[in-house]
Hints:
Elements: H1 12-22, E1 28-32, E2 35-39, E3 43-53, E4 56-67, H2 70-77, E5 82-83, E6 93-97, H3 103-117, H4 120-132, H5 142-148
Antiparallel strand pairs: 1-2, 2-3, 3-4, 4-6, 5-6
Amino acid sequence: MAHPVMFDEDDPLLARVRDICLALPDAKEKVSHGRPTFYTTKIFAWYGGSVKVGGAWRQHPQSVLVLLPEDERRALLDRGDTFVPGYVGPSGWIGVDLAKADWSEIAELVEESYRATAGVRRVARLEGWRAATPCVCVLRSPAQRRRVGA
């Protein structure tokens, strides 16, 4: 049985996450378990997550799940906008709610997760792209990219 779709294709926060994720080398998107996932050979980000609270699932539909080193993960969990997602949380994943997101931080977290999952060749390509592309920011909206010519 297929999972129900658990996102809105027209969600502007999803569009921003999509821009950040798909700007990374060889990144692709697919729907898995009803949610957008971003991957190379392994998943490095999910859009949306959930937590089991008191026997019921609490949805975080406008969030991004990323895989981070344990020290960074612990530091982020002290904040009110993060959560340990069901199923993947025990493997090091953390969810960040996007309602009041700092988009430069979200891009850094996504990139950190990408680096943890993408493999050395893709990470080397990312490093090369960073060195060759000064001042191009993946955080700009498509309209801003057209305006500044990036």
